[in-house]
Write a structure and sequence with these properties.
mainly alpha, 63% helix
């Protein structure tokens, strides 16, 4: 790598330090739920300390996504309506979403588009984790929810190199992440992994983010990387990418071997992902409201 490119990489990586910290409620929920036997009343108590997150949890719990019925007015009622797993996930969503409220000019996208993509990936990744008997589907959900946070850092630098990136992605059909590394010396997955490390997320979640475009390089976090990679691929095929036209991106061969995928099984998972995203439309519709 040339000195100029090394200098550019150093400047880009410094952007990780400028990302805001995760909200306290997110850190507390992640710490609490790292123990599979965590007490549910303590979860409710933690979430209730953040009035803004509590309000968002109630709004989403009362959305059409969870069906009709008596509206929840308290977190305890929301818990009865949506269950513990959904309460955890909605809390993470509500706490993390403000981080995505930034310009994405370099990706020719808006913040709502990136958030919808990440939320879609999280929902699909959680289902894939369940299908593969992953012991901690909630951690896979978190990795997928944050897998593209590096785009918030890289976007500005892509604006400066728009023509060169576009030539590789559009004219030469390069995968966007490969084009980022070629032109800038670093890609959004690496930056997202560094952000996860700064936030003290566990190594499995970090690995799922670091290697979601190159899961074959992940060790010992390969399962999370494979699941996030597959979820990202399926969501893009459903038309919910973010930025450059990514629909031509292929699934790494190693994912087929590692997850014992066959073409018919992949087709089934694609159909499953589509159903998940259709059902989740009420959640997506709340993004800008």
């Amino acid at each position: 790598m040339s000195m100029d490119k090394m200098s550019k990489v150093k400047k880009i990586v410094q952007g990780v330090e400028r990302l805001p910290a995760l909200p306290g409620v997110v850190n507390q929920v992640l710490e609490l739920t790292s123990d599979p036997d965590f007490p549910t009343p303590e979860l409710v108590a933690v979430v209730s300390l953040d009035a803004g997150v509590t309000a968002n949890v109630l709004r989403r719990a009362n959305s059409a996504y969870f069906g009709l019925g008596r509206k929840a007015a308290t977190l305890d009622q929301a818990l009865m309506r949506i269950g513990v797993e959904n309460l955890v996930n909605i809390t993470l969503n509500s706490g993390v979403m403000p981080l995505f409220n930034q310009s994405l000019a370099g990706y020719q996208a808006d913040p709502a588009q990136l958030w919808r993509h990440c939320l879609a990936c999280a929902l699909v990744a959680r289902r894939l984790a369940q299908l593969k008997n992953c012991p901690a589907p909630g951690e896979v959900y978190t990795a997928a929810l944050l897998h593209d946070v590096g785009k918030l850092i890289l976007s500005l630098h892509l604006v400066e190199e728009m023509a060169r990136i576009a030539d590789l992605v559009v004219a030469k059909n390069w995968p966007p992440a490969d084009a980022e590394r070629e032109i800038l010396g670093v890609d959004h997955a690496i930056l997202g992994g560094l952000a996860a490390r700064r936030w003290n997320l566990n190594e499995s979640i970090q690995g799922g983010i670091f290697f979601h475009h190159q899961p074959q390089k992940a060790s010992p976090n390969r399962l999370y990387a494979n699941l996030v990679c597959l979820a990202n691929y399926l969501v893009i095929q459903c038309g919910m990418g973010c930025g450059f036209d990514e629909r031509g991106v292929s699934l790494p061969t190693t994912v087929f071997f590692d997850l014992a995928l066959t073409p018919p099984l992949l087709d089934q998972m694609q159909a499953e992902a589509q159903k998940i995203l259709v059902k989740a439309e009420p959640l997506f519709s709340l993004v800008e409201s």
